[in-house]
Records
---
Amino acid sequence: MRIAFCTRLDPAEHAAWLATLRGLRPQDEWCESWPEGAALDAAVVAQPPHGALSGLRGLKLIQSLWAGVDRLLADDSLPADVPLARMVDPSMTAAMAESAQWAVLCLHRHFFDYAAQQAKGLWQQRPQRRAQEVSVLVLGAGAMGLGVAMRLRGLGYQVQAWRRGLSAARPAHPMDPVRVLAATDPALAPSAAEAAEAGETAATAEVPILQGQAALEAALPQTEILINLLPLTAHTRGFLNARLFEAMPAGSAVVNFGRGAHLVEADLLAALERGPLRRAVLDVFHEEPLPRDHAFWSHPRITVLPHVAALTDMRTAAQVVATNLARVEAGQAPLHRVDRARGY
Ligand code: NDP
């Protein structure tokens, strides 16, 4: 195959990806530049410049190296009729579960508060509750949301995940456990070793999946920790807003690991100031890097991460790319195809 490799990664990372992909698919011709109107079979991309893929002929796949495809879909020059696949990387899912585990543990056991106390030389013990007493709602029950929900369930938290409920490939019943879901999509099922490593058993990994607006509204008043893992679409832009925060109980917390544009920043600051929120953990922002003078940096109850909740892991993700290239070469549909009309 002739494959366009087009990224705006830093040069060392770009070169490392290319070497890894060439190692897995040495029979292919990997191109970093091409003439106008060139014939290429596939494109592997990470934040390609606007227009980079327009005019190419014969493309059978555009494979993103990133899980979120909102920026790609915002490029109106992306060839409209070519299948687009997002990255579903098992190592990235595991990393997201770790980040969520850290955030939830720090919120539940007051470790963020203890760090602030240390800065002031303050010795003060806070109440210790059981994980079973803490309710967590994960927005999004996709590769990331389910990975997070299952990890937290394995740690004993009361976890629910929420989804739109439109994907035909996923179960229609509002309370289907994850194990049923995983059985319908092997890519989502953890291996026995991964489950054991995470301390999960089939019983503890069961997570109720909620569907639709009414279920969300019923769950929010009982949600102490809300973790956003929705994709950024026309429906989800500004989803973390005053109306949603007001439905949550006093002392609750928000973790945004999705996209910066999910959050209405002024509404978050107001909800932290006047209630009901006590803390926020933010990994993604409207503008990245977060501007040096942004209010979030110095807010005493906001924790800022530099978009690191889960990075694509080249070692496993390159295998995912190679699998998808082999599939389209064999005339099969690629895995993890994006529904462009839906936006994810
Ligand atoms: P998936 O496509 O696998 O899952 C998306 C989930 O969101 C699905 O359950 C879907 O519902 C649900 N959803 C979508 N739109 C709506 C809506 N309007 N209302 C309710 N539910 C909705 O995506 P991933 O899990 O792989 O990734 C999710 C996002 O996580 C990415 O788009 C990216 O923005 C972010 N991300 C962030 C990273 C970081 O480091 N901070 C790293 C990786 C990803 P349904 O099941 O019904 O289709």
---
Amino acid sequence: MSQKTNRGQWGSRFGFIMAAAGSAVGLGNIWRFPYLAGENGGSAFVLIYLFFVIVMGISLMTTEFALGRRAGVSAVGSFKNLDRRWTFVGVIGVLTAFIIMGFYPVVGGWSLAYMFKSITGLMSTPDTAAFFGNFVSSSMEPLLWMLIYMILNIFIVVRGVSGGIEAASKVLMPVLIVLLIFVAVYGMTLDGSFAGVEFLIKPDFSAVTWDSVLSALGQAFFSMSLGMGAMLTYGSYLKKDQSLPGNAGLVSGLDTFVALLAGFAIFPALFAFGVEPTSGAGLVFMVVPQVFSNISGIGAILSFFFFSALTVAALTSSVSLLEVVTSYLIDEHGINRKKATLAVAVAMTILSTLASLSQGVLSDVSILGASFFDAFDIVTDKIFLAVGGVLIAIFAGWVVKKEDLISEVTNEGTKPFALVNVWYAIVKYAIPLVVGVVAVMGIINIQQRALMIAGLAIIAILAVFSKKL
Ligand code: TRP
């Protein structure tokens, strides 16, 4: 049923940029990027990350836009309509969205909780690290916030993405950026904060392992929403006269800017307060409240705004993930929107419940050597997105006809793209080779080997069976 019926188009270029950037900018930039950089030695990780963004990420985003606009349908259909044997790449994308939504709403719930905690005592806590630890391990409370966060997602996706959320993000995205700049500048005035700036910019490659290279790659794809067909789907709504490389560059630039800004907001303050860079997933929830609690009077309000903005940034990303799976059921299986959204959200909520409780009462349960939360994170970020990115590049470089792809990227030759040959070579050769090597070496060297093997097995099974989907 993959036909081009009744599909909307973005009203304006601005609307498209907002939606694509809204999908990209999220918890990945502000929650995930700083703690990964902290765990992987800082500057070297940041440099490798930037390399992947600039060399591979922008090219892959351009490619996803091109494949989507050319096909005019969402991810699964785009592959299936050209060659049924490639259907599974779209299906992997649907599965990836599904599993990311097995942990993302947990962190979205933390952010929502911190909005309210900002004005009810968080500012007067003597130890923000212990406060965070007690909160996430308390089981029931974070679970409830996750459920509320999930309900917000359902509301938005059932009603269509364009209403309130767009208006809220137009206001709160700039607020987020201003507050990040404020925290960064304020942090740099604190004693001992310069070590944090150094940590981010003075390259030290001694901490780099294959695992951290794979982390940087996974983070680049995760942050840019690449490797699973989300940007491809957005491309399918894009008008024929829009520049694909131009839009990809703009969305990527914005995404990277926000990630780096988050790094500069977190690390100077972190070093000034003597928090460990390797404190892990709670980093932003420990450091930012501590900065604001230093500011008597308006600190609580600023903290409230910060976590409101973070929650909205998270929502604009998670609705895009829920939408990927929902639109698959609508487009390919003819299920109505309301039913599809609810069914998908309930299943995601079950996964997120496991991930949320794995920080508390289920902390001893492991699947293949990791907690539920970590397992969902690792399997998507370190396998599915990387393998998905390689497969999308191979599909574009080796299956789609070169003339067709280039014609799409140059708008039928009307919009010349100076780097078109470089871009095509990156897609056809460099991404499959470099990402492939990084994935293989990372998988060989990672601790959670069993999990990686399970992930690869799932991909293999999908490759064999999804022709029938
Ligand atoms: N990019 C988002 C973030 O940084 C998360 C996200 C939304 C995503 N859609 C995606 C990640 C698709 C991978 C694929 O928070």
